[in-house]
Structure formats: structure tokens, C-alpha cells
Amino acid sequence: MPQMATASPAAIPTHQARVDTVWKTAIWLTAFLPFIQAIVTWDYDGRMEGMWFALRHYSFPAIIGEIAIIMIAIRSGMLPSTYMKSLSKTAMAALLLWAIFALFSSLFIADNRAVSMMTLIRFALHGLFLAALIHMVRQARLFSPIQWLLAIMAGILAYIAVLTLFALTIPDPANFPWMQRLPSATNIRQIANIIAIPAIAPFALLFFSNGKHKWSYAAAIFALTLFIAWSGSRGALFGMVTGTIGALILMRRIPAYSSIAAATASFFCALLASLALSLPTGSFGLFRFANKAQDITSGRVEIWINTITEIGKSPWTGHGAGSFNVNMHALHGIDFNHPHNFILQFAYDWGIVGGAAILLLLALFGLTIVRSAAKAPLTGFAALAGFLTLLTISMVDGALFYPLTIMMVLAMVAPVFISNLHQDTK
Fold first, then answer.
1. pLDDT per residue over 210-238, tens digit each?
2. Is 110 in contact with 164 (CB distance < 8 Å)?
3. How many CB atoms lie within 10 A of CB 67?
4. Where do the domains of the chain lie?
5. Using CA atoms, how far apart are residues 369 and 384, in angstroms rounded to an integer?
6. For the purposes of burial, counting CB atoms within 10 Å of the CB of 325, is it exposed (0-12), middle (13-18) or buried (19 or more)?
7. What are the Cα distances from residue 64, in Å, to 46, 67, 126, 192, 386?
8. Which tens digit of pLDDT belongs to each residue from 50-66?
9. What is the pLDDT at residue 39?
10. How much is the pTM?
């Protein structure tokens, strides 16, 4: 009888080293996607036309990175069909229902079919991206949640560092279009939203890791909060606070009081320090909040009302993803890329049925995170707080419209789906 082939002892460490390299490569590449996006879209003269606008608006550099991570996972043995089969019957039905309505609206309803189909494909890529991250974590016997979150923290700190460098080196700051033209995004608020979600990583490390460098996590919270406060983004600040507090309440866990004190002190010291920073325009900084007291919604109510009116014109099929800006500008003179509310965004894009289907998927996704969070405090808090931050911001902005915010929360969430991470604070 032929003997069964067995792996040599030397081959096992080699294979394990290769597996560990895969997940580390994936998370470091993911963590630095905002940094890469900023570098690729870098320029000094505020160009808003053609390729430069497309690179920022559609986040092409980040999406290429997302595709690269999916390909790495497939090469290491990931089968997308396996993750499809693992979905519950309810989730599978909702996914198929959304796909049918989204495909129909993109092919037959949307005026710009190319943009609509590209947006639809991008959402499908996000699903594959999450599967890729989960696959890599499951493969790694030596997976470290702390290293995972440290990579995310390092990536977002590098992002604000390069944005700060850009702001300090603009040749003609007085005439620069500050609101629309910092690298990587379509406006400064979107940049703040990109920062707010991975900013949860140092909170998680400070609250639930057993590391000896908690002062560095507090310093990271200070730096990230300082940049968000400088940007004047209410949604990002509120989302970060709501996500942090909401996750602790849902998890029913209280971190060490010293950790809570350090996080709180870092946060409020950053708010105070931001008041001393030089501001490019009156649209930046914490004082912007007071200036907006007479119109606290910044025109969002008008956008929401007009969006509901347009949803009523095509309630079942929607208008096609990615069509909001062109359509609403033509009909109502509104120059926004999305309705600043993810519920209205999904209903406008894919109709009531398609929108309800993806909202159901989102609810099931959140419920899974809540149930899993109790098993592992570090990864559980990071996933839950990141998800709640995303939802909070998405109620008043486009965090569920732009790719980078979605990618960042998926990176925060992925480890919580691994059942063997019961001791994740080491």
C-alpha cells in the first residue's frame, strides 16, 4: 500500500510563517489605504477637474488595494462560495433580494449606467474584502489582535501626519480651496469621518489590552481627536463618542478606571488644544459648531425632504446607485454626492425593497457583532464601537457611501468573527 504523505517538521514552521506573513501583509496594507490614497491624490494647486476629482471621489487607489487583498486571500485558499454558504437563510434571502433590485436599477433605471454599475460592484467588493480578512485571520494560528489593532492605529496616525504635512506646505494657503481639496477625499468632513472609525483602535487598546504602553494609546487618542476637532466635523466627533460609549454599554463591561480617565483626559485636552491651532477658514475648528447654531443641520433637512420626494417618484426600483448628485443637482440645485442619511441613500438608490433588504443585512451584521463581542473584549469592543461609529456618522453623512470608511470598519470588525479568540488581550 502506498504510504500517505506527511509534512516534515521543518515544513510546518515554514508554512506557519507564510500564513502569518499573509495576514500581517493584509492588515498593514489595509491600515495604510488612507495614507496611500492621500499620496496618490497629492497636489498643491487644488485641481478639481478630470482624473484628480475621480481619484478622490471614487477612491480608486484604495479600491485597487482592496482588490489586491482579495486576490491575496484567494491565492491562499479562500473560496468566496464557502462564505456565501455560511450565511443564514434570512441573510441569503436579503442578499439575493438586494442584488436583484440593485442590478435592475443600475441597468434599466439609472441615467448613468456605468457609474451605477461601478458603485454596485464596489459594494460587492466590500463583501469579498470582509471575507478575505476573516479568511486570513482564521488561517493564522499565531494571530494577534493587538498587532492587528496596532497596525490600524499606525496607519491612521500616518494618514493625519501626511495630511498635516500637506497643510503646512501649501504654497498659497490664502487662495487654496481648503474645504474641497485636501488629499484623499472630496472634502474635510469626509476626511474626518475616515479618521473617526479607526480612531477606535487606540480606545480598544487602552481599555482592554494588557500592554505596558497605554500612555502611547492615550497619545494616539489625543492626536486623532485633535485633527478631527481642527476639521470642525461634528458628525465625526459625535460618532466616535457615541460608538465608544455605546459599545461599552452593549458589552456591559467597564474598563479600568485609570484607562477611562486617560481616554477622557486625552479627548478633552485635544479639544482644548485644537482651539489654539491656526484655522484656514471659518469652516474649520470647534467654533464652527457655535456658528452653526442657527442652522444646526447645515441644510440637511432640505436635502432629506427633497430626497424623500424623489424616492416617492420611483419607490420600488429606485434611481440607481451613484446617480444622486447629477439627478438632484438638475432637479433641486443640490450639489451633494449623497443624501447625508444612509437609510434615504439606500432607498433612493435601490428602492424601498432593495433598500430594506440591505438594511436587514446591516441589522443582521450588527446583531452578529453584538453576540460575538462578549466572547473577546478587545476585538469585541473594537468591532462594536467601530460599527456604531459608522452608523452614527451615516445618519448625518456619507460614511456608508465612500469606500474608505467602509473598508476601515470592516478591518475593525473582521477578527470578531473568529470563534477561537476568547483570550484576545494577549
1. 867 899 999 999 999 999 999 999 999 99
2. no
3. 14
4. 13-417
5. 6
6. middle
7. 24, 5, 12, 22, 23
8. 777 788 888 899 999 99
9. 94
10. 0.92
